[in-house]
């Protein structure tokens, strides 16, 4: 046979079955298979590279991950500083709060009788149920808490930190909001108005017309300033949605004001949506490079999988392989308790962008 | 052969090809075929039923519909009052503004070289391009406009009405924002912080720390009060995302305060996402009934299709079949120019829910 | 503004709504929008180019298109020689036969009670039903017919021609099998063993151990020889599956024996499957070029859409735009009635490949 | 709070991360989360139930699983009799043969330059490559082998057994064909004509007009007779395609001739296709019940996932949990070496269905 083509260098190595493999060993074998299995293995490797490098790691989460049983994985990722900043839909934070407050979601069939459920005031998320009565109690709980706050505008970052603190004080239970509160990891929720947390805030407003002021434009400024302060960043996205774009926007917005910002250096997404209908959730990481959302030399992996399969496997694998890296890692230190946050001791303004004119090093 | 089963009543009638059929005639023939073709035909019928009934019709739009060439269809639907209230992502309004201001999106291959595009500062949305330089000019234009506004909190509804007015005054061109302004159709943008309109507002903030105040909690209150004022409603959703949920949330939130509200009476969605991963974008309309987002006896149709195929066909069909219905229709009349909007002459508060305790008629 | 980028040449032109547009006019406007709408418009243009050129056009069909109401569109495409050779799943031919014999499929909900249907012996295909009793009668009808044939091996091409003839004689009704019979368009069914036509043949075998002999390897030889005889070819695929690959395989196999064959010159696919899981149904047309299934300079369009939406629109558009081209077109002439078929008067062997050693012209 | 609803019985238990969990422990935790993670856990449980019960287990495989690195998992499932009968696409068997013969597939990017690949005669399957030259050698090898066989019709079951034996003799390497040969597990390939194995057979025909006779109608009869002989069956499907339907068809066909057959008792599918376009690959297991493909009380699980993620995890989990069950299991014993196969010592005819008129026990 003629000389091997330059294209044919690394053979597929068929996966061989063993019962006692741990998640990281399974993923190690998946590095040499194909399609999404290979991508998931590459995601494991890439996340470790992010942790080895000196980057601020953003995690975006959309889809019903909290209701679907992944909230303690996200809490674990936050508590152990696999990530440094969370951007979430409101629903994921709300369903997290629901369980942290001692309530539950419940298993069901996706073929449930929705009229019967409506009759019993039970809400369905595909194959998962929750009690509307308990949701109403959550809304009231949020409204009551929000009504106690000093009546002024809050970024979602500040509000969610306070909410996490209140949740921790009242429950001493674990969860996403609590883990972020305790680890001083900022949470942004750009679409908070499209969630039950927003509904709770609107009910606070109903009680007191000066309550429930949310300054989402301040969130844009703060998130961009985080990038300006530390221009080396990474994006990890579960499920697309507003978090995916908001994390990218932070970088694009930052670049307007600082020439040191050049797009995320790493990008990892686990999505089920596809690129060919043009929506942002399914958009490719290559496309993101055209916008400067990612640097053109960024390392990137896209995995097409339901997060309820991919994330447990990935998180368990990291739990075996990442601890030595985490031990060496110096994650950025935030203070979040007040109106104006800080990163590494430096102020992160909410009302003006930090302008940086020097060239990148 | 034995007596026909009760299940076997309405035969499929194979589609027969003719060259001179108009869109409504094509859809009429698709009523008796199967799968998504039948659903699209049913969508045409359902939309006409909404227009015949006395309901407030919400339209949600997500995905890159404006960049993708559908913005004048949406403008047409607004101007002719096929719909009464728009809920949109920020990107769709921004890309609409971009073209209304005389700029363009451009055709490209989805296999474009993103590094080369980044080098020329061109942003890609699958197979469609835009100039980043022009986007920066838009951002400035929005920032300049926002900085001229009296510095106080604005709901997105109020801000976008003002923005549409400014756009109309300066361009006298058609588009979504302009059509809504001219037809007094309210626009809500719950995730405005996750868009270039939000970026423009943040840049206004940078110029003036009191500018760029957006009251998204007020949007929740206003949208629910619209439903409380007129409890019979319909939901039309293109592409899922935050608009889909926000329209449903308006109904759920309204029901807390008014026993006359009982979920949308009609629901039509054109989506590409699927239910089985649990995300809201792809969630079924049956599931929405469990939540009370839709009434349990609502008429509903879900079409699995890219809107760039389904919407042109549907809108052209309606243009032939709906005008007599539109002529009879009495759409709700809004005033949107000030801090507090009205519907049918009644105030729609932004800081408290209108409580209605009477039983429904 | 600086000089326009070479990338920004052809602006998106937003679709404008008019009620009296015909399908071709709708598609003409969709040429300048984005995503799958643009692709469907490009498909219309590409099919006309195929008809203008001197190529043999293969049509592949998979998915439940016949049961779903598209069988008379396919019959129309065959009768009017928009296509020259059909490759189909067995189910599509069987459901076509079912209706040609005067029976029906029926409209239903996709949420039908399957236990109740099973109880009444009704078979469901998503939102479409059929009577099992009628299916059993079809199977018997096919078995009876097959048992009358001289007991020797038949390619599916020969058998399906005979079946079409028998169907025409007994029903004088239109359909895919009948149209192909009357227009002398060959049909291949490589997976006939995986269908109710195969089941009918197996029942003929049960009656007579020498009946029901199908020579599918002969189909491979014949299909490749068709390409060798006329090396300029085009592939149109609806839904992927075995037809998609078989059409490509014909070209690849032909190339082994004739240096004049160089892959299909045109390729058009309307699919719903995606590339990233590695399956052939969703594979990209670019990938097909690596294999030589398509020539590297082939014109190609891939549309991501349910065929029940895309095909009615596309076929109606062609019915307005293609007739002058069809009038000029000289489609290849087949004879199919005997053991050995011919194309343009030349024998198409079933037991050896036609070897062509000359260089291409 | 009021009494708990009957719907709210089993709470979601959020997945908690640990590094040293094995696959079965990971899946055990996924039993109480949602969406496809829960379904994959249920698949693990269901497969064990199949092994506990006295059923013949069919495994269907479609999609590029062999090229993609899963062939030794399938070989392992066959060798350890997790399954009793394989139905496969031709491509999966061909790519298995390719590697068993000592050749490889290779890792690549899905964005490879297909013109460059074509130029070097390298074939791409999404992110995986193979040498066309080696493929041509395989085709020749198959053709040479097929030409040595006694010239008479072979079911794919018989031919593939002989091919597996030849492969074992010449390579002494493991793989799907070899494992099935050595374990006396029958393989059916209903769409063999749509694969490179079919191409090899057609090239044997080219050498000798009496070679390459495949009796696919005999495959239908044999597969149904297997079900008639042992009416309790189970279906496991990876990826849909012709194997999915063929396994179902075996049961439906068997039921025509034996009242003891009542549809598969268990069904498990791991697919990426969706039901709402009507195709068989994505069709729901509920729909299959209407046809009698599955019994109306069958236990069933559908997992929406790429098999390259789901199957390694599932197979490793079974390797820990199933061995005691396998040790007790008495799988059906086949003889496959001759024209007519047997199961449990009873003849499985290929030219007539075994008619059973007694009522089921």
Helical proportion of chain A, percent range? 40-55%
Q: Oligomeric status of the shown chains? A: homotetramer
N- to C-terminal separation of chain A?
50 Å
| Strand content range of chain A | 15-25%
Largest interface: A-B, 81 and 81 residues
At a glance:
Chain A is 47% helix and 15% strand.
Notable characteristics:
361 residues, globular, alpha/beta, homotetramer, three-stranded antiparallel β-sheet
Task: Explain what you see.
With 361 residues, chain A is an alpha/beta fold. Helix content of chain A is 47%, strand content 15%. In chain A, the strands form 3 sheets. The first copy, chain A, has a 6-stranded parallel β-sheet with strand order 6-2-1-7-8-9, sandwiched between helices. In chain A, strands 3-5-4 form a 3-stranded antiparallel β-sheet. In chain A, α1 packs across α2 (35-52), α1 (23-30) packs across α13 and α6 crosses α9. The interface between A and B is large, with 81 and 81 residues.
């Amino acid at each position: 046979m003629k000389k091997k083509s330059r294209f044919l260098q690394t053979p597929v190595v068929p996966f061989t079955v063993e019962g006692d493999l741990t998640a990281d060993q399974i993923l190690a074998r998946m590095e040499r298979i194909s399609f999404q299995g290979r991508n998931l293995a590459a995601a494991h490797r890439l996340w470790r590279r992010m942790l080895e490098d000196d980057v601020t790691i953003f995690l975006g989460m959309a889809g019903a991950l909290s209701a679907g049983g992944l909230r303690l994985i996200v809490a674990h990722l936050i508590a152990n500083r696999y990530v440094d900043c969370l951007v979430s839909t409101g629903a994921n934070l709300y369903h997290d709060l629901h369980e942290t407050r001692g309530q539950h979601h419940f298993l069901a069939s996706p073929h449930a009788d929705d009229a019967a459920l409506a009759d019993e005031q039970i809400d369905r998320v595909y194959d998962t149920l929750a009690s509307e009565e308990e949701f109403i109690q959550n809304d009231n709980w949020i409204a009551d808490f929000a009504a106690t706050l000093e009546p002024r505008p809050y970024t979602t970052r500040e509000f969610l930190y306070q909410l996490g603190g209140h949740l921790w004080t009242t429950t001493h239970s674990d969860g996403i909001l609590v883990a972020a509160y305790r680890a001083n990891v900022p949470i942004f929720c750009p679409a908070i108005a499209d969630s039950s947390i927003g509904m709770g805030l609107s009910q606070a407003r109903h009680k007191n017309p000066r309550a429930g002021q949310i300054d989402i434009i301040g969130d844009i400024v703060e998130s961009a300033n985080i990038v300006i302060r530390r221009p080396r960043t990474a994006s990890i996205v579960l499920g697309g949605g507003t978090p995916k774009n908001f994390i990218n926007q932070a970088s694009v917005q930052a670049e307007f004001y600082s020439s040191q910002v050049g797009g995320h250096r790493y990008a990892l997404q686990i999505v089920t949506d596809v690129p060919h209908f043009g929506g942002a959730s399914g958009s490719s990481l290559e496309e993101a490079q055209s916008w400067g959302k990612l640097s053109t030399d960024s390392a990137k992996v896209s995995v097409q999988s339901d997060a309820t399969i991919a994330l447990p496997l990935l998180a368990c694998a990291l739990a075996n392989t990442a601890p030595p890296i985490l031990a060496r890692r110096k994650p950025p230190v935030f203070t979040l308790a007040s109106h104006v946050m800080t990163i590494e001791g430096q102020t992160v303004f909410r009302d003006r962008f930090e302008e940086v004119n020097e060239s990148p090093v």
